[in-house]
Specification:
By secondary structure, the protein is α/β, with parallel strands linked by helices. The protein is built from seven helices and five strands, in the order H-E-H-E-H-E-H-E-H-E-H-H. The mean pLDDT is 91.
Length: 140
């Protein structure tokens, strides 16, 4: 990672996660590698709220909303290229059960005309998808 950061020389770096997820040593290491880069940290109380915070930082999003489960990280990693290609936003949702309010609010604020899930309904259950879509329809 250090070699790639040095090669790319970004002018800014966003650390996604609080100190309990990414310790101060991570920010210190990035600052040492890229002394002129602006370092920003996104944090929230839990992974669902953090995904909403990160999605809100997406500049000029496209119209697509993408959902992946927070319970299996490979789904979210696999989603990243499609989300970037479409200019959409990725939100992490539970596999089943109650959807965090931050996710409902983030989805509704976008008013997406379409949504896609990664990992299928085995990863993001139909009840979760229905809660999110119902919230979007009510808000938009």
């Amino acid at each position: 990672a250090a070699a790639e950061l040095t090669r790319l020389e970004p002018s800014s770096v966003v650390l996604v996660g609080g100190l309990s997820w990414l310790g101060a040593s991570v920010a210190d290491a990035v600052a040492a590698l890229l002394p002129s880069a602006e370092i920003q940290r996104l944090d929230a109380d839990n992974v669902y709220a953090l995904s909403a915070v990160a999605a809100a930082q997406t500049p000029a999003p496209g119209e697509g909303l993408f959902l992946a489960t927070a319970e299996r990280y490979p789904d979210a990693l696999a989603a990243a290229p499609a989300v970037v290609a479409e200019g959409g936003r990725l939100l992490l949702a539970p596999g089943a059960g109650e959807v965090h309010e931050a996710i409902l609010a983030a989805a509704a604020s976008q008013c997406p005309p379409s949504a896609a899930t990664f990992g299928g309904t085995a990863a993001v259950g139909e009840d979760v998808i229905e809660q999110i879509l119902d919230h979007v329809v009510a808000a938009c």
